[in-house]
Amino acid sequence: MSFRPALGALSPDQPVASDLAEGFVSHVVQWAAQVGAPADSLAVLAAAARQVSLAIQNGHVCAQVDDLATLFPAQSVAELSRCLLASGMVALAGESHVPPRILPPILPLVLDQGRRLYLHRYFDYERRLAANLRQRAARSPLAHNDDLRRQLDRLFADNARRLGDRPDWQKIAAALAWRGKLTIISGGPGTGKTTTVVALLACLLAENHKLRVALAAPTGKAAARMLDALRKRAGSLSPALQALLPRESHTVHRLLGVTPDPGRFRYHADNPLPIDALIVDEASMLDLALACRLCEAVPPDARLVLLGDKDQLAAVEAGAVFAEISAYPTLTATCIAELSALTSTPAARICLPIAITPTATPTSTPTPLADCVVWFSESHRFASSSGIGRLAANINAGRGGEACAWLATSDDSSVGWLADGSADLAPTTRQAMLDGYRPYLETLARVDLVTQRDQVFAAFDRFRVLCALRETARGVHAINRLLGQHAQHFTGDSAAAESHSPWYPGRPVMVLRNDYVLKLFNGDVGICLPDEAGHLMVWFPEQDAGFRPVAPIRLPEHDSAFAMTVHKSQGSEFESVLLLLPEKTSRVLTRELFYTGVTRASKRVRVVGSQEVLVSACANRTWRHSGLIARLGEAAG
To answer: For 230, how many CA atoms within 13 A lie in the half-sphere containing its CB?
Structure first.
């Protein structure tokens, strides 16, 4: 994920203005005319309002006034800015000394000192989030003690034997999180983020048995995986410490407490969560608005640990918060000295990774989030020399041609490439998908669907088809139709097929809209299976084992889930993945999407797409307009 102060045009193929954008433009221009705006400012205002609205729809937080110059070549950027301010609809952001919760006049648009143009509420979110993070980062760190050092040595003894003289970044990150109130850990799958969290919690709970710890993730699937991973890693702890670990995890929305008033939560800055520490996994999925509300709901003195992968897809909504705040992993000289003492690591070795400042001195000017960010680069799930690891590295480095050349000649069984770029899927591609689900369908035919639901879910979660798009012949909808028909034919459910009923044993479904009454959330996956009376229900896994039935007629908006978009797969892991890329290049197909799809697989991934599309995906980085980094600097002022 990438960002910068000015990016030029939003996108050469951005969509035609939507009804929502045009409605906003009409409202703002009419309002401006009613308050007596100069006539020559209205055209500029309309263009700016349209551009900002489209920017938000495309995931940006703001737009650039500079981009308006292409529409008004006779006017300078300064003149365009003056026109916007003269319209009476654009507030000029205050100087850095203005308290973060004292906002400009409530006008629909805000122009800041960097010529960034915002919808008012997004400027508000960005400024509040920056101030909150900066205040957390500035809190005085705790002094180290010998008990903590000895405990870290015990917890990471296996790492010490494996790493030898190399620095243990998991141990360093645990010490960093113990020391401060804000820690941001970025790493790919299998790099040890969960191991680090378990060690941190062991240290904190050993010191305070009554510590209130909460676990959260943006989706129910990610929250469940987080809790499961923590339990598996906790086996090395004493029974007493294991008993103190959190017993449940939450979606971020559930944690904050949904209220009948849309957009409002029970917990917020004036009514913070009753916790002492919060661990958030898959934080790259947090959009700007949710990140702001979450951080404000965490008490100022509580620890906040954000885990994610800076190279993954950003949130579906506006912002690339995690990528931005994890971009500058700088450690000050003072922090390095303390980490050295806590982890028994020579200070010089703590400075080795790229982007960790190696020349810090006590007088160095720190970045706004200095001593808060750590990158993990070594995967224990797949080594850099493994097929998946090597492909992921090539994608992240933008080496599409090299990736294709290697895929075409490699005999590594963990990766595969079907160079199928046809609009209609080639027979080999169709067969690969059918073969992928064959073990699942055979399980449906073999086990008791009432008493052995756990085996059905385990078989289904071993393989998944991931798509870049929802529509087209290579999109989610078409693939789900194909695989659904095959599943009905394979299982012999001719009655459902002939009646065109969407419900049959083994049909997987994904919830697409939150239903707080049913406690079903966007991204939850269930499977249609009979109950004891033979009635078809959709069963959803519970956190503490077991399954919960929901009648199909009561389900909120949903879709079949043999195939899902890469976006929806975030927070999930499958043994094997078939990644189906579009037949032609697209602005949606980015390096981040390609990387995210590939790294959902733990054992094997097969990529389907033409060489042109693969190379384009590696080269096409996601750019999102944002002023968060600049706002962090203001908050420090």
So the answer is: 29
